[in-house]
Give the backbone structure.
Amino acid sequence: MSNADWDVFNGDADGLCSLVQLRLAEPRDAVLVTGVKRDIDLLRQVNAKAGDRVTVLDISLDKNRPYLQRILDLGAEVFYVDHHHAGEMPSSASLMSLINETPDVCTSLLVNQYLRGAHARWAVVGTFGDNLKASAEKLARKLSLSSDELPLLEKLGILINYNAYGANLQDLHFAPCELFKRLVKYPDPLDFIADSRQLYQQLEDGYQSDLQAAGSAQVLIANSEIAAYLLPDEPWARRVSGVFGNQLANANLGRAHAVLTARASGNFSVSVRAPLDNKHHAAKLCRQFPTGGGREAAAGIDDLSAGQLPAFLETFEQIYK
């Protein structure tokens, strides 16, 4: 039996643009393993064998540790690139990792560094999508981009990121694996935009409509340090939760934000954004609750029980007071 390649990646803009860069530089006919934004224990789905090559992008090593160890024990080679909380690294000659948890770094930037800028425009897209505007602009200054082109890359990153949010693939406009197959055909993301007007317009229309609906979000708490909003159990709300959090953060640089989305079970999914002028403690907050995790600047809780809501809001306020 021949050896196989596996590409395992977060379905958001950072994960997608990281893989686009890699596969433009190093094409492979790989098995694609991805999902919605919150699907992060993706290595659980990888049935690798000795000699296989597994590339892992933009998912927490800490959340995938047992599955990673199983893959390594079976004799597969793993290339792991990420910026989320990793915890203790497994010791294996078969593991190559690029892990950087610095708040202003994302996986797209790490892949760009690894590839020495070979497809830096896609790194700019992914970095904008991860709401690291200053980092994206810093990289963009090294490229030959006009004043008209940079906003196009920023908007593309935002729209790709918006597309990843949902409870399941049915909530999304496009499945991330299918979107990757379209993106990777274009060494220049500006050419993708020019050639994909129907796809782009569908994302743009959905984004604007969902964001407008988010204007009716219930305010749970709001002061100069923090604000928390509640969205209903609706597909549009699940789609917009991440970009709504980013919009709030960009509009109030000194305030931390939480966007809670109701679930059919009566529980909540939670997206947290640290203040953009002090990108810390989001992961610290979320990891205090079951199913919580993330990174310093942005984190989340997949399933916060209704009974834990008061404790979450109290802890949120304590951390950012």
Q: What stands out?
A: DSSP finds twelve helices and eleven strands in the chain. The chain has a mean pLDDT of 96.
